[in-house]
Amino acid sequence: MGDVIGPVVLVLLAILVVAAIAKTIRIVPQASAVIVERLGRYSRTLDAGLNILVPFIDKPRAVVDLREQVVSFPPQPVITSDNLVVSIDTVIYYQPTDPKAATYEIANYIQGIEQLTVTTLRNVIGSLDLEQTLTSRDQINGQLRGVLDEATGRWGIRVNRVELKAIDPPHSVQDSMEKQMRAERDRRAAILNAEGLKQSQILTAEGEKQSSILRAEGQAQAAILRAQGEARAIGQVFDAIHRGDPDPKLLAYQYLQMLPQIAKGDANKLWIVPSELNDALKGFGSMFNAHGGSQVQAPGTSDQRPQQSRRPSEQHPAPDFEVPTLEDPVEALRRARAEAAGATRAAEGAQRTASGG
């Protein structure tokens, strides 16, 4: 028996030594803290790294994660000031700053943060209507964070951020809001279409106005140039006639040559002989008589008609006919464009005045 008891005792002693060593050495991971109690009372907080404990006397109580953590709470029904029930989901970002207070000041700080969030949220939302609730998320987040940070400070918890993940009004209210938004969008679309049509018509009218102005200016300049050309041509013909000094016989002959041209045409059913034809014929007959009389003139007699000068221009000086001055087409086009630009600026000013009114 003695031989058997000896090895057993040695094995037990070895196991006891190994267990004591295991309880003596405690390795704490990074960003973690371990609360150690000695004989049931708080002793110290172990930081990251290798730590030595007194076996069977020091006992780890809790391991606290010092990293920032995120917790999402289920939807909570909240009543607004206009008696509408909305469901709100919240997300809390928190971080333990004091492991001892997080362990001993509250039994479950996650549950405490959740209940405090619900009560604070109901107090904040109860003073707002639905429209303010949907549009004042930053204000609600700031109030929640202030209340939670003040209350959880003594728990060793720091609330870094509070976010409203979702705000769900009742289905009937959602349908009404969708109809309102659809009507508002339709109204904006109609306004935009009307504005676009208005601008299009204004631009079209401005373009037609400028086109009409330029066309009218072009026609006016063309008419002016045509009239100036015709005036110059008439002046040159008039000057040539006076310089040539034609006698009545030549004019009568030209008149007789133009009569067949007057009678031409399919629509001429009746031709009226003008009264000037008799005068032309008389002049033409007198011309033949004059030539016949010159053939039977007796010798020695002389022609008693006055001798015409070889320079008709000296007997009948050309009238002082003013040759019209042609306007430069480039200058006329530039002036027309300047007037069109002035009219466009005046129309734009009137449009801005009407829009501002």
Task: Write up what this structure looks like.
The structure is a single chain. With 357 residues, the protein is α+β, with helices and mostly antiparallel strands. It has 3 domains: 16-64; 69-169, Band 7 domain (Tetrahydropterin Synthase, Chain A, 2-Layer Sandwich), CATH 3.30.479.30; 184-261 and 276-284 and 316-357. Helix content is 59%, strand content 18%. The chain contains 10 helices and 8 strands. The protein has helices at residues 2-24, 99-104, 109-125, 130-135, 137-152, 171-244, 248-263, 276-295, 312-315, 329-356, and strands at 25-28, 32-38, 41-46, 49-52, 58-65, 69-79, 85-96, 157-168. Strands 3-2-5 form a 3-stranded antiparallel sheet. Strands 6-7-8 form a 3-stranded antiparallel sheet. Strands 1-4 form a two-stranded antiparallel ribbon. The longest helix has 74 residues, at 171-244. It is rod-shaped, with a radius of gyration of 59 Å.
What's the gyration radius in Å? 59 Å
Count of DSSP E strands? 8
Enumerate the spans where pLDDT stays under 50 for 5 or more consecutive residues: 293-324
User: What's the mean pLDDT score?
Assistant: 78
Whole-number count of domains: 3
Outline, from the CA principal axes? rod-shaped
Sheet-strand content, in percent, reads 15-25%
The ordered string of helix (H) and strand (E) elements is: HEEEEEEEHHHHEHHHHH
Largest sheet: 3 strands, antiparallel
N-C termini distance: 118 Å
SS content category = alpha+beta
Number of helices: 10
Spatial strand arrangement across the major sheet: 3-2-5
Percent of residues in helices:
55-70%
GO cellular component, one term: side of membrane
Biased composition (Polar residues): 292-301
Subcellular location: Membrane
Pfam families: Band_7 (PF01145)
